[in-house]
Amino acid sequence: MRPTLTAFQASPDRGRGLARDMGVRWAFEEVGQPYDVRLVTFAEMKGPAHLALHPFGQIPTYESDGLSLFESGAIVLHIAQEHPGLLPHASHGRARAVTWMFAALSTVEPPIVERSMAGLVERDRPWFADRLPLLDERIDVRLTQLARHLGDSAWLDGDFSAGDLMMVTVLRRADPAMLARHPTLAAYIARAEARPAFQRAFAAQLAVFTALQSGG
Ligand code: GTB
């Protein structure tokens, strides 16, 4: 049975692959698992059918074989546990890869999302100009630390893993100008984006936006 993923019918990212279905699509592609996508409108996301799958009325969700999941990190972890390719076999390596998934979502992502939310909802507030450099600084601290860890390595811990997939998914939401100041990380992201699985996932979500634009 093919799993079903939900994604925005009209993603506010306009096909840039920044919404959270992107990481799940990428994980499916990495492990070679075909999947179906059910596109949902904002109104549908807040309706009872979707709320039964996702208590917070968001995308993405995952359904397969009677199991329904929400939270992109949990979904990627489930895919990685069900299929070879995204987690090392050895238990220590596997635990470290999962650690990087958590690091991406709970240590690196929060300042990135806070900065982008501030740009959306606080731009007209009197404190915004003072707060912005503080938010940027918090991101930069994490980027500096991550770049130092990565050093000359291709991936965070040995071979490419779900940890890298999650980390790159998170980093792609950061301001490109800020990332450019960290060439190690810019190269890391480019290396991940060059993976055929990433390219297929990106093309699939872009096709949704393109079809919407052409009235399809
Ligand atoms: N922690 C959850 C997860 O990882 O799955 C967060 C899920 C989430 O934030 N989903 C968002 C959503 O459904 C879409 S991806 N929002 C609707 C709502 O809450 O009502 C977040 C997102 C949105 C837009 C952009 N963008 O335009 O660049 C990027 C990311």
Strand content of the residues, in percent?
Answer: 5-15%
Q: Estimate the mean pLDDT confidence.
A: 97
* Largest sheet entry: 4 strands, mixed
Task: Give the class-level CATH name of the largest domain.
Answer: Mainly Alpha
Count of separate DSSP helical elements: 10
Ranges with pLDDT <50 over ≥5 residues? none
In quaternary terms, these chains amount to: single chain
Question: Can you count the beta strands?
Answer: 4
Strand order of the largest sheet: 2-1-3-4
How far apart lie the N and C ends? 27 Å
CATH topology of the largest domain: Glutathione S-transferase Yfyf (Class Pi), Chain A, domain 2
What is the H/E order? Answer: EHEHHEEHHHHHHH
Helix content: 55-70%
Q: Work out the radius of gyration.
A: 18 Å
Give the names of the bound compounds.
Answer: S-(P-nitrobenzyl)glutathione
Compute the number of structural domains.
2
Assign the CATH architecture of the largest domain: Up-down Bundle
Instruction: Supply the helix-strand structural class.
Output: alpha+beta
Shape: globular
Overview features:
Glutaredoxin; 2 domains; Glutathione S-transferase Yfyf (Class Pi), Chain A, domain 2; alpha+beta; binds S-(P-nitrobenzyl)glutathione; 216 residues; 4 strands; 10 helices; 8% strand; 4-stranded mixed β-sheet
